[in-house]
Amino acid sequence: MYLSNTASQTLMMNDAGHVPANTTVEVTDPLIQSLLDAFSTAYFRPQVEAMGNYWGNFCGVDQVFDAGTPAAEWVATAFANATK
Questions:
Q1: What is the DSSP string of 21-42?
Q2: Contact present, 67 and 60 (Cβ < 8 Å)
Q3: How far apart are CA 39 and CA 41, in angstroms?
Q4: N or C: which end of the chain has fewer CB within 10 A?
Q5: Are 58 and 78 contacting, i.e. CB atoms less than 8 angstroms apart?
């Protein structure tokens, strides 16, 4: 939590050039702002449909954390779907 608060993220952005993960950080560097703009409008992974068919199975970990699906069961199902 400490590393992701506004003050820490601002420090890392200004001193180390990191793109802040915290959306409350005021971005003043035009290069970092352009990266944030690209992240919000771009589709940067996967680049081909076949990769989306594979990696798309491993999205939705909220099923484990929020819905209580056992992690091993969730991974086994995702793997089975990804390797069809």
A1: S-TTS----HHHHHHHHHHHH-
A2: no
A3: 6
A4: N
A5: yes
